[in-house]
Amino acid sequence: MPITDHKGIPGMESGNLCLAIPFCCMYVISILGNMLSMLLSDSQEIRFDACLTQIFFIHCFSILDSGVLWAMAFDCFMATYNRLQYESILTNPS
After folding, report:
1. pLDDT band at 1 (very low <50, low <70, confident <90, very high)
2. I need a labelling partner for 3 at 20 to 30 A (CA). Which of 18, 33, 36, 42 fits?
């Protein structure tokens, strides 16, 4: 039974944490920002521009997340389908 090792982006193993932290912060800020201000001020409504901003960021990050998941699925497919050629397909010949 073969064992796979998931390292993230080839050649950037040390930078994976540096990429994960900003994405996590963007998600937290876009989703929880207005909600926390509403809960702390006991307000039942938000301004229209704040609502549009929140909708924009939620949709942008969900599209970005879908793209990342698609890339991960494609990477998994390539690793499974072309086992012996996987490294030469994803790395630049230099």
Report:
1. very low
2. 18
